[in-house]
């Protein structure tokens, strides 16, 4: 937009004089109009440069004070007065009042007709907007040309910086510097100033910050992703010159957004090939179909290396966001993936990240021993919440020493993760431990194990009378004491002969030798399961 200062600085309006010294010359002018009536307030648009001969205030400049107050409240950009017609000087009180409001009073020279002044200024404003439009289109054409030529984001940013003659910094959704223009290579002080502004001024109140071209630094959102934008920091705005405009920077941002999104999709497509290889490794128990030793270059391409240590960690996004549409989930998956890579690779370049067909889970493969890997995971949990609305959980498999055993560590990690998730846990960090028999039994439905109990224990499976209950109790103690008569007798406080009688009775009912290893194992299992079923 054109400002009062810009109009007064033009050669064609050089004999327009500013009457009051403390006027705000940054006021924008969008239109020009003429008035000779004092009640124009309700009929004038804001940012209008209003011209008048002040005929109605010829004998009463005190009324001019009220008139200026009304115009300032609209707000009108400025008031131009032709002093040679009805008023030849402006009273001191009027000037002081205008200064108090910062409201510009401009003297229109005698040789200018108000209609002529209106036409000239309107023409300039119209031409100015046209020039700014042409400039914005040129920016768009340059950026689109770079897109067609497949310039990198870094190269596009540098070309844009040169064209605009402004230093630029691109910040990713995780508030880290993605790219800087060449201006910062020899000016780290300027870069630090930009980042301080971004972190200390912009981020704390970004939803209400308006771009101000009169400030030194401004930040623009770059909507490469709908829910996770990038940010463009523009420096030295005080040096911008006509015909730079907000429209020009918007055109540049649109092209940058497309370039960033395109690069992200290319990376995602390349990663899909890596994920397919990983899926083939975890879905076979016979080892890799391709030998690591005979194809080292192939595996290096897929971020895998020969090592005596491998450990798989399943990282999952906890449910709970209010936003769960497909666009958000896809963006979150891609950016979480990139975020995990950026953080973990700084810890160890041999840590690899893979997807395996679940939009909420990732597999992290450690290929070197890390004493503090649990602390790494805790760090990820804390940092993730700074950029995303959800939290992370981890299931950790045991280490394996051979590449062909990665499948085993993955299964352990995934089982641990799914078990904790099934229990309703959130933001957990659990290491795999082998399940005991009771935990494994809980995975089987009762209608599948009950027939085994009945066929093994018969009437003793779920006894209802006192006699059978005593027999089952004695059999249980006999099994627990490794078929030792004396220990069983002491355990249940009955005579040895009573124990012998009851065991013989049990063998008659079950029609097996309870001391036989195979039958003993079945009986022990059946006794355990029957107790578990009764307790549930």
UniProtKB/TrEMBL annotation:
Residues 301-417 form the CdaR GGDEF-like domain. InterPro entries: CdaR-like_regulators, CdaR_GGDEF, PucR_C-HTH_dom, PucR_C-HTH_sf, PucR_dom. Residues 472-527 form the PucR C-terminal helix-turn-helix domain. This is Purine catabolism regulator. Belongs to the CdaR family. Gene3D superfamilies: PucR C-terminal helix-turn-helix domain. Residues 6-125 form the Purine catabolism PurC-like domain. It comes from Jeotgalicoccus halotolerans. It comes from the Bacteria.
């Amino acid at each position: 937009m054109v400002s009062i200062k810009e109009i007064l600085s033009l050669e064609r309006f050089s004999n327009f004089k500013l009457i009051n010294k403390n006027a705000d010359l940054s006021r924008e002018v969008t239109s020009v109009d003429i008035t000779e009536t004092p009640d124009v307030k309700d009929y004038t648009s804001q940012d209008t440069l209003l011209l008048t001969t002040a005929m109605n205030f010829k004998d009463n400049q005190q009324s001019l004070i009220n008139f200026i107050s009304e115009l300032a409240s609209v707000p009108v950009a400025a008031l131009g007065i032709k002093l040679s017609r009805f008023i030849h000087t402006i009273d001191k009180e009027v000037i002081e009042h205008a200064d108090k409001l910062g409201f510009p009073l401009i003297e229109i020279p005698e040789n200018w007709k108000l209609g002529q002044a209106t036409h000239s200024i309107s023409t300039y404003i119209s031409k100015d907007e046209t020039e700014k439009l042409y400039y914005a289109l040129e920016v768009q054409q340059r950026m689109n040309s770079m897109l067609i030529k497949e310039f990198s984001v870094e190269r596009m940013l540098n070309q844009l910086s040169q064209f605009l003659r402004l230093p630029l910094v691109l910040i990713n959704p995780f508030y880290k510097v993605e790219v800087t223009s060449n201006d910062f290579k020899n000016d780290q002080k300027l870069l630090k100033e930009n980042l301080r502004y971004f972190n200390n001024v912009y981020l704390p109140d970004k939803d209400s910050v308006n771009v101000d071209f009169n400030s030194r630094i401004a930040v623009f959102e770059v909507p490469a992703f709908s829910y996770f934008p990038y940010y463009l920091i523009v420096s030295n705005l005080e040096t911008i010159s006509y015909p730079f405009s907000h429209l020009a920077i918007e055109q540049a941002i649109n092209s940058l957004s497309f370039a960033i999104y395109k690069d992200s999709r290319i990376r995602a497509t390349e990663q899909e090939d890596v994920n397919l290889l990983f899926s083939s490794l975890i879905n076979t128990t016979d080892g890799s179909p391709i030998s690591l030793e005979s194809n080292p270059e192939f595996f290096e391409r897929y971020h895998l290396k020969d090592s005596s240590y491998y450990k798989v960690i399943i990282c999952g996004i906890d449910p709970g966001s209010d936003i769960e549409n497909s666009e958000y989930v896809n963006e979150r998956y891609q950016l979480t993936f990139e975020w995990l890579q950026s953080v973990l690779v700084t810890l160890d370049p041999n840590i690899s990240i893979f997807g395996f067909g679940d939009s909420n889970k990732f597999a992290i493969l450690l290929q070197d021993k890390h004493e503090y890997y649990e602390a790494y995971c805790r760090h990820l949990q804390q940092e993730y919440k700074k950029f995303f609305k959800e939290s992370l959980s981890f299931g950790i498999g045991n280490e394996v020493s051979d590449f062909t055993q990665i499948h085993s560590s993955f299964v352990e990690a995934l089982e641990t993760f799914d078990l904790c998730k099934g229990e309703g846990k959130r933001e957990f960090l659990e290491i795999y431990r082998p399940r005991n028999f009771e935990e494994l039994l809980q995975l089987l439905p009762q209608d599948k194990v009950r027939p085994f109990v009945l066929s093994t224990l018969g009437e003793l499976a779920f006894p209802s009378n006192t006699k059978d209950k005593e027999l089952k109790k004695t059999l249980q103690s006999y099994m627990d004491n490794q078929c030792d008569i004396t220990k069983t007798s002491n355990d249940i406080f009955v005579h040895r002969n009573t124990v012998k009688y009851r065991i013989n009775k049990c063998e008659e009912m079950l029609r097996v030798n309870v001391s036989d290893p195979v039958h003993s194992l079945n009986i022990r299992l059946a006794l355990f399961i029957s107790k578990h079923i009764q307790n549930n």
